[in-house]
From TrEMBL:
Species the sequence originates in: Thalassotalea profundi
Domain Regulator of ribonuclease activity B, first and last residues per copy: 6-105
Top-level taxon of the source organism: Bacteria
InterPro entries reported in the protein's UniProt record: RraB-like_sf, RraB_dom
Protein name: Regulator of ribonuclease activity B domain-containing protein
Length: 107
């Protein structure tokens, strides 16, 4: 299996080479960062209202004065789907003065 030559493609290639099953649904977590807890809370509240099935976790980041909103989506490990979901979170986070900071899969 081949993947595009970018960060997402590289991560997926590493996962594939480690034997992760791409034919099953995984919990993919997308990370949003905010400088103000009020903005992070506003995005978390928005998601709770608009996507109640989504697992959303607001917590303090390891970096002082930074807040994380982690959004877990059950999905296949598909390059195009991950890129599209990440773009949606980037646009949404920007509305609340934050930004998307990548994604990962819960082990």
């Amino acid at each position: 299996m081949t993947f595009p030559n970018d960060d997402t493609g590289q991560v997926l290639a590493e996962m594939y080479n480690e034997g992760i099953d791409f034919s099953i649904i995984h919990k993919v977590v997308f990370f949003q960062l905010f400088e103000h807890i009020e903005d992070a809370q506003a995005m978390a509240d928005h998601l709770a209202a608009k996507a109640p099935e989504m697992e959303v976790n607001l917590h303090a980041d390891e970096t002082p004065n930074v807040w994380d909103v982690d959004c877990a989506v059950n999905m296949l490990l598909d390059y195009d789907a991950i890129i599209a979901q990440e773009a949606e979170f980037e646009q949404l986070a920007a509305k609340f003065n934050g930004y998307n900071d990548g994604w990962g899969v819960e082990a």
